[in-house]
Amino acid sequence: MADQNVEWHAVAKASELEAEEPEFAKVGDTLVCVVRLDDGIYAINDVCTHEFAQLSEGFVDGCEIECPLHQARFNLKTGKCTELPAEDDVASYPVKVEGDDVYVGLPKG
Amino acid sequence: MSRTDTYVVVGAGQAGGRAAEAIRGAGFSGRLVVVGAERVRPYERPPLSKQVLTGAAAPDTAFLRAPDYYDEHGIELMLNQRVEAIDRGSARLTLAGGETLAYDKLLLATGSRVRRLALPGSELAGIHYLRDLDDSLTIAKALRAGARVVIVGGGYIGLEVAAAARKRGCAVTVLEAGDGLMRRQVAEEVGDWYADLHRRHGVEIVTGANVEAFEGGSRVQAVRLADGTAYPADLAVVGVGILPNVELAADAGLEVDDGIVVDACGRTSDPAIFAAGDVTRHPNPILGRRVRLESWQNAQNQAVAAGRTMAGEETPYAQVPWFWSDQYDVNLQMVGLPDRVDRLVRRGDPEGGAFTLFYLKDGRIVGANAVNSAKDIAPTRKFIETGAKPDPDMLSDPETSLKKVLKAAG
After folding, report:
1. 3-state helix, strand, coil in chain A (%, to 5)
2. Where is the Rieske domain (chain A) (predicted)?
3. Looking at beta carbons, which residues of chain B come within 8 Å of A66?
4. ipTM of this complex
């Protein structure tokens, strides 16, 4: 996603993000799940595509997050759904860190 | 496997539906037929005692797939159709109409049926059981505001119906034979917490209730206990467990032991025949024993494993058993199948409405009941899978994330 197509929003402090402990941020109406993994910080949409549940309440296992409600799984780096009962992917958002601020790039408009 | 092979799935419930998807997904390119006794395409049952009863969700949200899915994937659904017999010698099924259907491989996902009470008055109108979509729609219609509903059985089904009935403005009594609610499913203190929850919502809970008869003319008017107490009823709902539909397999001479006996990949004692879901007794390598499970997880994932294996992708099923129940605004999740337990550790505050009770044996977590604490389930499952020993003080401290407790346990 090119920078000009996204709007950057500060959603967390890098120093406060613990490895594999997801954090939740609300940007407008969009719920975002932010997670620090071994090789960086990643952000995906926080709402499971199966039934309403927040993925940030879920469990991080490697580079996947498991929904707390019915154990659907999504890749934190790509948003790809990897386990039933969900079938659709969640959106994945670009992340940049400036100083201690973690920014998430959401589509404009 | 060849393009001309025919694979048949018997049973179009959640397990049958997921198994068929998995067979195709694993690359099977021959004819694939799913035979189902019900009139509708495969659906999952959890909403039937929850959102469908309360009206919070349309019944069609329960379907696994859109109607077009089956045509698009070359899956033939033969609905409203019962299989009467399996002739293993000629590899043919006999259908209820007398027609036959040849198979190269067969998967049995015949599921379960409700256990029915055989008491005086059992045949009266207005006595309901809840298993399929039509049952759910019938009960939903009967739950009119002001109706007196007597529920026999204080397990998941009975209590979910109780919660739905209260939401619809019915007067509700739950009659449970045991000395507490959900005794087979959860720890006593969790069952007691639920009894309080239901009482706060206006449900009358009667434990130690030995139901002796249904009374009434043509319709049920009361449910009577052995001690003579009669509870007036406009309708009764009975939820006293389910029985696996093993007859088809047993009659065909397959090995059956309270469930069709299968290996970790879903194979029965006949290599051409697989079985999936509620009806199977399968080995669970994490628990170290054979189990028969009545759960959504098993109906989906064990069926996927069996389906893949049948299509040539050897896939053992190995998951920690997991169950859930929704009553009012409380989500209960259970993980593990603890048999012997020597310690319970509580995390969180029951008074505050969210807590988890861990079952420990020899310092290891063997199960948990999580009340409005769904996020505790995945790390608990990790503990069960790895056998890691948690520090009980860390475990009981809600301020310490379970991820940390897990890491500390190595």
Report:
1. 10, 50, 40
2. 8-104
3. 378
4. 0.81
